[in-house]
Write a structure and sequence with these properties.
Elements lengths: L4 H8 L3 H8 L7 H13 L6 H8 L4 E6 L5 H14 L5 E6 L4 H13 L4 E5 L5 H9 L3 E5 L10 E4 L1 H15 L4 E5 L5 H17 L8 E3 L4 H12 L7 E4 L2 H13 L9 E5 L13 E4 L2 H16 L11 E4 L2 E3 L15
Helix pairs in contact: 1-2, 1-3, 5-12, 8-9, 10-11
């Protein structure tokens, strides 16, 4: 039979309440008594009942992380960074991937409530503000990332998507490109809306007309990326540069360039938003605007810890941070070739 708290107490010749306080590190327990209880627990291979402890103390030592997927660099960097931070702070992280489905996200947030998770980082759908606020009301620490969550009172951390697209567009404009195609996310999603605003804003500021047929907005997926790239490249007056702010779509669009026999950057310049390790291994290496996912996760951890430790002065309700992206120039962007008959 597995050891329980009573058997540990009997083995250490102390009361059950003393054993409980000793195992929880309560300062009222004498050091010699604590050592005796810890030795008894080790000898009996005692494992504390986390569920019972959570019900008793309203704390579990567990944190939740909601991400849309773990395929792309941003989400798995957030997961790895948060996990690396959590261990030394005495927490373990439970990761839930939802595919961006608000219902699956809601189910996990309900699980976080039922199992008394101490905190949750939500880098997900942008929905479920009611559940986020309920967790806050119940004393849980919550931070949202990746998308705006309208109505949420949780602190948030997000890359500055509008600046991201503006930096990418300004880089291409500075090289002399005026026919710039853009493969973007859906307009109803935070990143899709703000990336588009940054792209069009940079064109307006430079006095360059937007070519509507060169802008394709759609879902986060490889198949959309492929069809979008094929659509802009088959135009009789094709673009000289391609901006891909729909990260998942870029994975489908990039092979299309090779299949079309286009030389990068001689015949078309390419720039992507969000960093991905293989971008630097592509031939040529791809210019990007790095969203600095590790920095985002680090700030989310800071805001989570402030809530967990009760530092109310460090994080006000609805606190929002936009983190600056960074332009990383590699070999995939260059001035347009004038001898190709386009500018």
């Amino acid at each position: 039979m597995p050891a329980n708290l009573s058997s540990v107490a009997a083995h250490a010749q102390v009361s059950t309440s003393t054993a409980s306080r000793a195992l929880s590190g309560h300062p009222s327990v004498l050091p010699a008594t604590r050592e005796r209880v810890l030795a008894a627990a080790a000898e009996l291979h005692y494992q504390p009942n986390r569920m019972a402890s959570a019900l008793r103390t309203n704390r579990s030592g567990l944190l939740g992380l909601v991400v849309n997927n773990l395929r792309i660099n941003t989400f798995h960097t957030i997961a790895e960074t948060l996990q690396a931070w959590a261990g030394p702070h005495g927490y373990q992280v439970l990761v839930c991937t939802t595919g961006g489905d608000p219902a699956r996200e809601a189910a996990f947030l309900q699980t976080a409530r039922m199992h008394h998770l101490d905190g949750v980082v939500v880098a997900g759908s942008g929905a479920n503000a009611d559940l986020v606020n309920r967790l806050l009301e119940e004393g849980r620490a919550v931070v949202t990332m990746n998308r705006e969550v309208p109505g949420s009172r949780a602190p948030s951390v997000m890359t500055d998507y509008e600046t991201t697209a503006r930096l990418a567009t300004e880089h291409l404009l500075a090289l002399g490109h005026t026919r710039i195609a853009a493969i973007e996310g859906p307009p109803e999603i935070t990143s899709g809306r703000l990336h588009h605003a940054g792209f069009t804003g940079a064109l307006v500021a430079a006095g360059v007309a937007l070519v509507p047929d060169l802008v394709v907005r759609g879902p986060f997926g490889m198949s959309f990326g492929r069809s979008a790239a094929e659509a802009v490249l088959r135009r009789p007056d094709p673009p000289t540069a391609l901006l891909m702010s729909n990260h998942e779509a870029s994975l489908g669009a990039l092979p299309v360039l090779g299949e079309a026999g286009l030389r990068v950057p001689e015949e078309i310049s390419v720039i992507c938003t969000e960093e991905e390790p293989f971008y630097s291994w592509w031939t040529p290496p791809l210019t990007t605007v790095d969203n600095r996912a590790e920095n985002q996760a680090g700030r989310a951890a800071d805001l989570l810890l402030a809530q967990l430790t009760g530092d109310d002065d460090a994080v006000a309700p609805g606190h929002a941070e936009l983190l600056e992206p960074r332009l990383v120039i590699r070999g995939s962007t260059a001035p347009p070739r004038r001898d190709l008959g386009v500018s």
